[in-house]
């Protein structure tokens, strides 16, 4: 059968969603149920938000924005270190006086960037395994909180010209951020329904690209007018504040949330089915996962994505300095491709869900279409950049090359849920482990190739980047799949659902679970 297993069920999605928006009193899905005379009904009527799943997704998106904006900090500091005319490109005496007085070359900076991703690589697989069994929302929050706290230490390390200590702090940041995406995918597993997964996934993952949109201009302005070290302090403090907000609004599952309405809980439980059941009673089919062609091609896609993303996040300001922009202008121009990427990534979720719910294309074809457009245009854009030497034209094709890759967010990047929503956190840990080989490699390769910082050397970097994207898109078009894999199913779906004893939940949640959890047929 060439049609996805879930495709047949999607014809009734609209009707099912419509039916679930009403209860006996005519209230809409997600609204608090009318008071039935008990105190529990009054409690949730007073505290519920209309769509708690949307609130959780929005706060998670903000977290992704903050953590990825923070990753631009080192990139701008490196610009002031490597650019011999940095004193001429900042705007105030205070900013000039704050410039780091260190003697690091591009090879040393390449290793500094790579030290983060070495740590990042080491914790991906353990984090993916833990996120399958432990509360994902805590793993996600802990990753951001600890990394932001470490970010506050970096200005002192750099000012003291402690190169190896700076590398150590970046390595530790990588260690704690290695659990970021496994935790994030674990959150989405419980807080998105199949019919909304494209939009929810693209919203949160777009936050990673929006981080560059925010981070580059903010870092550029602060570095230009105040001083580079304040960029680190700002990001670190705001990230810690986010973690406090996350504690209020996030829980592992909808059934655990004190603010969710009865109707939204029932709607989400019905839509999600057995995919939301814990994995504690099942053995992870690791052999089947690691030999699955659809998973292996996602590994190559993740490698290509990380190659492009980290190249731009760490080296884009340095590349643009070839065209004699000020630090403030550099930050503004560096953000333009990422603005385009945010727009395409956000729209890709709506495009995917529209094509799916209207039965215009199968899930497999949707994922391949969006990945083909995103990576294909990126491949072409970077190839053209190898021939361009005018600053204005460079910005145009850099925007095309980076911006269009955003469409792939609702292509290969949420394909993990199609293959197995149950093991999505583990799948992203596996593919991201391979992907972060690219994260480690690209700063080192770029540092060596661009040692003399010439346009010709950057042309070589972009040619390699174009080739990596081309290989990834061809592989995904051949081996990619949107079908749920056989190893995703537990031995007995009904038995697993029935193993959830509602009486084990706290009193106010027990009745909610009793009403909402039904064995799937």
UniProtKB/TrEMBL annotation:
Principal subcellular localization: membrane
Gene Ontology cellular-component annotations: excitatory synapse; synaptic vesicle membrane
Record-level Gene Ontology MF annotations: L-glutamate transmembrane transporter activity; neurotransmitter transmembrane transporter activity; symporter activity
Basic and acidic residues: compositionally biased ranges: 1-13, 20-31
UniProt region (Disordered), positions on chain: 1-42
Residues covered by the Major facilitator superfamily (MFS) profile domain: 56-484
Keyword Phosphoprotein: no
Protein's name in the database: Major facilitator superfamily (MFS) profile domain-containing protein
């Amino acid at each position: 059968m060439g049609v996805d297993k879930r495709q047949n069920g999607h014809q009734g999605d609209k009707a099912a969603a419509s039916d679930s928006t009403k209860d006996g009193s005519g209230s809409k899905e997600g609204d608090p149920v009318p008071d039935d005379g008990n105190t529990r009904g009054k409690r949730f009527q007073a505290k519920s938000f209309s769509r708690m799943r949307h609130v959780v997704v929005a706060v998670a998106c903000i977290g992704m924005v903050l953590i990825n904006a923070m990753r631009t900090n080192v990139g701008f500091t490196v610009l002031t270190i490597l650019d011999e005319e940095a004193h001429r490109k900042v705007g105030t005496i205070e900013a000039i006086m704050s410039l780091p007085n260190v003697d690091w070359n591009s090879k040393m900076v390449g290793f500094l960037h790579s030290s983060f991703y070495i740590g990042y690589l080491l914790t991906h697989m353990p984090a993916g395994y833990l996120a399958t069994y432990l509360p994902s929302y805590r793993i996600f929050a802990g990753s951001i909180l600890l990394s932001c706290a470490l970010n506050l230490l970096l200005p002192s390390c750099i000012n003291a010209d402690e190169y190896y200590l700076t590398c150590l702090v970046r390595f530790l940041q990588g260690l704690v951020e290695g659990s970021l995406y496994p935790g994030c995918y674990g959150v989405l597993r419980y807080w998105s329904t199949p019919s909304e997964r494209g939009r929810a996934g693209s919203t949160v993952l777009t936050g990673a690209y929006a981080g560059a949109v925010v981070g580059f201009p903010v870092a550029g302005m602060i570095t230009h007018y105040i001083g580079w070290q304040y960029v680190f302090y700002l990001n670190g403090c705001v990230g810690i504040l986010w973690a406090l907000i996350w504690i209020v609004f996030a829980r592992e599952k909808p059934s655990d949330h004190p603010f969710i309405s009865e109707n939204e809980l029932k709607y989400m439980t019905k839509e999600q089915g057995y995919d939301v059941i814990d994995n504690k009673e099942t053995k992870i089919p690791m052999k089947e996962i690691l030999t699955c062609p659809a998973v292996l091609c996602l590994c190559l896609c993740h490698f290509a994505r990380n190659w492009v993303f980290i190249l731009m996040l760490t080296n884009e300001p340095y590349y643009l300095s070839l065209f004699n922009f000020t630090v403030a202008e550099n930050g503004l121009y560096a953000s333009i491709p990422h603005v385009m990427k945010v727009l395409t990534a956000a729209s890709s979720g709506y495009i995917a869900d529209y094509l799916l719910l209207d039965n215009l294309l199968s899930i497999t074809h949707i994922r391949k279409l969006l990945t083909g457009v995103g990576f294909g245009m990126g491949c072409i854009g970077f190839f053209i950049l190898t021939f361009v030497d005018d600053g204005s034209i460079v910005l145009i094709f850099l925007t095309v090359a980076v911006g269009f890759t955003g469409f792939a967010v609702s292509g290969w990047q949420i394909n993990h849920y199609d293959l197995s929503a149950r093991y999505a956190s583990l799948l992203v840990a596996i593919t991201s482990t391979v992907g972060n080989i690219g994260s480690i490699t690209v700063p080192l390769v770029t540092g060596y190739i661009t040692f003399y910082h010439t346009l010709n050397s950057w042309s070589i970097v972009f040619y390699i980047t174009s080739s990596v994207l081309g290989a990834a898109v061809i592989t995904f078009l051949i081996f990619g799949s949107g079908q749920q894999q056989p190893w995703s199913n537990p031995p007995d779906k009904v038995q697993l659902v029935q193993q959830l004893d509602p009486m084990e939940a706290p009193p106010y949640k027990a009745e909610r679970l009793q009403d909402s959890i039904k064995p799937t047929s």
